[in-house]
Amino acid sequence: MTDLITPITMPKFGLAMTEGKIAGWNIAPGAHVDAGQEIADIETTKITNGYESPAAGTLRRQIAEEGETLPVGALLGILAEPAVSDAEIDAFIAKFQADFSSDSATTTQAEHADPFMVNVGDLTLRVQEAGQGAETPLLFIHGFGGDLSNWMLNQTTLSATRRTIAFDLPGHGGSSKNVGEGKPATFAVTAAALLDKLDISKAHVVGHSLGGAIALELAKAFPQKVASLSLIAPAGLGRDINMAFIDGFITADRRKTLEPVLNYLVHDKTLISRKMIEDIIRFKRLDGAVLGLQNIAAACFPNGQQADDLRPVLVSFDGPAQIIWGADDEILSPNSAKDLPATIKVTLLPQTGHMPQLEKAADVNAAITAFID
Fold first, then answer.
1. Which PANTHER family match (predicted)?
2. Helices 210-221 & 184-197 angle (0-180, nearest 10)
């Protein structure tokens, strides 16, 4: 009856994901599971994400223990109906584990897409690409304090029919820490130069938070390069900004002080993973990282307000544009999306904070796919 047994394996949430940690099981052994039901929480480098069951059945075994870190593809549990005997399940597990040798794990890890470095002027940018095809490429631009892994739950899905590019802004991630003037317009010039370097004449642009303001500046200065705009909780449409987040992100240097700051990012506070906190603390210890963030904050949010009013750019953009915003955003108010022309589609996601692309990835991916298709 092995055809009646469904293995639950460590999912691959993002291009660079090679392993995950079982943060917790949501279903007890012996309970019935529906297809698509969240059965466990998986902690990754960026966020704790619910793992949806690949099929319906009874959870007969939990192989992986809570707190255990395993490679992508490793066996986590077993779904099977009561008619399947324990002996058959034991035999299935033994064969799976034998087939999934250390070589299999190494192969799985080797399949992930490694970021690469691109020289743009006097800057070096860390870039991650995925997908190919004749469709217009898609460029992701992350926000303040983020990096290309902010798109880990989006890039794989959206690269199904087209080339996609995510990169670390100057001062972030693995890119050069020189931020120049630190303004959205400055970063827009860098983004345009990156497109030229990658031989991309025009792209759909997806920008989050400060990345939304950069996307607008890109459309303003280089309209021929922007096929469409998908702005996720964008800066530049209002003056208000939660400076407790900006200042706290810059100054917090321990888990105890950084975790409450990062909680501003999401509606469900349990999604902030310990690994995410540790990675940010490690990044801020790099030479020039904190200084770069300070310069960006001074340029973009002087006197505790957003410096740039880019609403006229959005209104006058000669192309399709949409806005996706979390209704419970604690950093930038979704009220900034009010009173825009009816031609600009606004999607408000309930029970969602400042990072819908991670907190409601499926909804964001569906909205962007429908929009650019």
1. HYDROLASE, PUTATIVE (AFU_ORTHOLOGUE AFUA_2G14860)-RELATED, MONOACYLGLYCEROL LIPASE
2. 70
Q: CA-CA-CA-CA torsion for 257, 260, 265, 266, nearest 10 degrees?
A: 150
Tokens 């291009």 locate to 15
Q: Indicate whether 254 and 336 sit together in one domain.
A: yes
Q: Does 143 share its domain with 77? A: no
264: tokens are 């501003």
Same domain, residue pair 55 and 74:
yes
Based on the structure, what is the number of domains in the chain? 2
Instruction: Name the strands in the sheet holding 138-141, side by side, starting at the edge strand that comes first in the sequence.
Output: 116-120, 123-130, 164-167, 138-141, 203-208, 226-232, 321-326, 345-349
Residues 229, 295, single domain; the answer is yes
Contacts of 97 (CB under 8 A, 6+ apart): 75
- Say if residue 50 is in the same domain as residue 134: no
Indicate if 104 and 131 belong to the same structural domain: no
Structural domain containing residue 54: 2-110
Taking only the tens place, the pLDDT of each residue in 198-242 is 999 999 999 999 999 999 999 999 999 999 999 999 999 999 999
Same domain, 101 and 122: no
Chosen domain end from 110, 127, 161: 110
pLDDT of 15 > 70? The answer is no
What lies within 8 Å, CB to CB, of 58 at 6+ separation is 30, 31, 32, 33, 79, 80, 81, 82
pLDDT digits (tens, 9 = 90+) for 238-291: 999 999 999 999 999 999 999 999 999 999 998 898 888 999 999 999 999 999
State the maximum Cα–Cα separation within the chain, in Å, rounded to a whole number: 68
| Whole-number Å distance between alpha carbons of 99 and 78 | 16
The reported pLDDT for the residue numbered 110 is 40
- CATH no. for residue 227? 3.40.50.1820
What are 102's two structure tokens? 């250390």
Q: pTM for the complete prediction?
A: 0.82
